[in-house]
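Support request, priority: normal
Reporter: lab tech (M.K.)
Component: structure prediction queue

Hi team, I submitted a job for YihY/virulence factor BrkB family protein from Autumnicola psychrophila yesterday, and the status page still shows it as pending. I've pasted the exact input below so you can check whether something in the sequence is tripping the parser. The sequence length should be 338 residues. Please let me know if I need to resubmit or if it's stuck on your end.
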Amino acid sequence: MLKLLKIFWKLLKDAFASWNRNEPYARAATIAYYALFSLPSLIIIVVTVVGYFFGREFVQGKITNEISSFIGEDPAKAIENMVSNAALTEGSTLAIIFGVGVLIFGATGMFFQLKMAMNNIWNIAAKKANFGKLLLDRAVSLGMVFVIGLLMLVSLIISALLSIIKDQIHLYAPNVTGFMVGVANFCISFAFITFLFAAIFKLLPDIHIKWRTTLYGAALTATLFIIGEFLIGFYFGQSNPASVYGGASSVVLILLWVYYTCLILFYGAEFTVQYALHKNERVEPNKFGEPAIYQEMEKLEAKRLQLKEEKAIIDTLKSNLDFRREEKEKSDKEKKKT
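Reply from support: The job had stalled in the queue. We restarted it manually and it finished. Here are the results:
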């Protein structure tokens, strides 16, 4: 047992060192910026898909309540208003098609940036993209949106079943009903969050990796996410960091929430890398990726050629300057003789 704890502690330290080297703060800020524009589109798609089964207003209210538990009521209402204002309405076929395209493009923007961050963590670089690769990346990102929708659909179904079971148990053991349902809800939420993070680690980067390998990192990420959710909620509730921004406070809170969540996600991904190295798991680029060092070497070679050209220009300018100086000195000597 002690040996396992030492190994786990070493993996945590190595993951932190790698996490700190990969500029997590800048990348988290970039994704938070994209998330601000992607969230309304993402929520609209999820509400449309899941709302087909449970009703749009019910699902939208459920999402608003969940977001409210993370970052407060005002930011949740702001997102709800953005979703309501951006929702597709009846119109011409061309307008609807264009609107759907804008929604898909907006909803996938955050996952597209997240894919680049995951590649960087695994030291993988996407090969030079063509139009087909760009469409595939967007399709994978859209797939993540539908995964979220599917998880929410299953979550709502299980919540309904738990409610029925709760009523039945309450008839026989009213004192333990609340505790049992609370434990069941926590376990189910933890399982869903873990699967979502595992899907991100498995599907987004351009690598071949086993689901088993991603689950360990995803479980740690889910644990840190739940702890972070409590700490972030406590921090927002006590310090109110967005109070100085007035009317823009809701936007600031959304950015901060996504920013801190991305930092946790990146650390979980780094832990997955360290775990794969510890277990000697075979992780290799897929056909769309290659080791980042190849592109780094190409950049260095291009930089070397650029510096060589710049040196040639400087040498030419210096030679011209020396020639002019010699001509001037020669001319001054002739003037002195005369």
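The chain has two domains: 2-287, 292-338. The beta strands are 124-126, 207-208, 284-285, 289-291. Let us know if anything else looks off. Ticket resolved.
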